[in-house]
Amino acid sequence: MSEPDANPPAPTVLAQLQGITRTFGTTRALQGASFTVRAGDAIAITGASGSGKSTLLSIMGLLDTATDGSYMLCGEDVSRSSASHRSRLRREYIGFVFQSFHLIEHLTVEENVLYGLSIRRRFGDDAQQLARRALGTVGLQGKAQSQPADLSGGERQRVAIARAVAAPPKLLLCDEPTGNLDSRNSSLVIELLCGLVSPSSALVIVTHDSDVASACMRQLHVADGVVTEDGRGAR
Fold first, then answer.
1. DSSP letter at 11?
2. 72 Cβ partners below 8 Å, 6+ apart?
């Protein structure tokens, strides 16, 4: 039997932010944010309302661009990418889960997941298989033909998660994913999200909930646009 590797390879760097600053007129929402996201990470971003944490998540998700600094995503410098290129990279690498679910009410549960897959250019039998697998992962295979209006809040959020991960993203970005849920469903959703982290993917969650934050292996805190980790400079 071979001996285990005493020096296993370092996890793949998925995202690296260096000196990220974002200003809106005279307001500085972020000031020199620098940290790295590696495959296998589950990261909570905490901070008061207006601290800059949602702005940070938007930049990571290529929904916004920094005023200054560099952002490497999966080995590519995307700091000054065009809107069309950012859109393609979002489809390829990033999944989103939001507080308000954003389900399409006139579509069934399965159709909502299939719609998300169509945005990522997945169609036909391939998309059907991915949708069914994702709904099985979140425990909703029996609700595939249900309408969103017939689901509980926790079930609706699980549909949103299935839609985000049906074609597994490298970065799963969540903005207050438990904000509309009771404590029981909140615990179920955060357990599900953390369980989706793999050796090739990472999870980043913006949250006000200390229980959600403590479930993540790393915690970043944003205050007045400055990002720190565990009371130190973010790594």
1. P
2. 13, 15, 16, 17, 18, 78
Looking at the chain, list the stretches that DSSP marks H as alpha helix, in order from N- to C-terminal side. Answer: 53-60, 83-93, 109-119, 124-137, 153-165, 183-195, 210-214
Q: Give phi and psi for 51, each to the nearest 5.
A: -75, -20
Residues in CB range of 152: below 8 A, 6 or more apart? 185
What token pair was written down for 52?
A: 């800059």
Domain ranges of the chain: 13-103+171-233
Rounded to the nearest 5 degrees, what angle is found at the Cα of 180, between the Cα atoms of 113 and 98? 45
13-103+171-233: CATH number: 3.40.50.300
Determine the distance from the C-alpha atom of residue 190 to the mean position of all C-alpha atoms in its chain, rounded to a whole number.
12
How many C-beta atoms surround the C-beta of residue 234 within 10 A?
Answer: 19
Task: Produce one character per residue of 87-106: b if its CB has 16 or more CB atoms within 10 Å, e if not.
Answer: eebbeebbbbbbbebebeee
In this prediction, residue 36 carries a pLDDT of 97
Q: 168 to each of 41, 124, 130, 219, how far by Cα in Å?
A: 15, 17, 9, 23
Please, are residues 34 and 17 in contact by the beta-carbon 8 Å criterion? yes
Q: How confident is the prediction along the chain (235 residues), in pLDDT tens digits per residue?
A: 556 566 667 789 999 999 999 999 999 999 999 999 999 999 999 999 999 999 999 999 999 999 999 999 999 999 999 999 999 999 999 999 999 999 999 999 999 999 999 999 999 999 999 999 999 999 999 999 999 999 999 999 999 999 999 999 999 999 999 998 999 999 999 999 999 999 999 999 999 999 999 999 999 999 999 999 974 445 5
Of 94, 216, 99, the C-alpha closest to 157 is 99
